[in-house]
Amino acid sequence: MTDHIILWLKGLPRDYIVLITAALPVSELRGAIPLALSFGMTMQKAFLLSVAGNFIPVIPVLFLLEPVSNWLGRFRIFARFFDWLFTRTRKKADTIQKYEMLGLAIFVAIPLPMTGAWSGAIAASLLKIKFRYAVTGIILGILMAGLVVSALCALGITGWQAVTN
Length: 165
Fold this sequence. Notes:
Helix content: over 70%
Order of helices and strands: HHHHHHHHHH
Number of helices: 10
Oligomer: single chain
């Protein structure tokens, strides 16, 4: 599967590859920023493309998750998937539910697996957080995550240069 994705992306301009990588639920901007830097992009360009790409799926997920999951939930295979997804998300939703927008921002900002804009948008949809609060919290979280990942990349580049010199 990964090989097919890499082959498909190979022919695209690098800016698009970074945007798409940031929009994917597995990599998000945690993978897109280092990828952009490996392409030789500046930190600013890597940050902006990754933040923009990471935000791409947020509004569709907020609007479409409930109706699509309700419709697909009629089919056994999809019902199992959505049950698994919603159960996993609800387990991590205490902070989000308690603090709403701030909790959502913190959840999205933590640069660890199973957190991020996708999980934040799913949680906001499940918890019925108002759209404007959900979008604001997710944007703040994406920006904070981007700053953290950029700082870690900058430290890594500086550290690597110090070791190799």
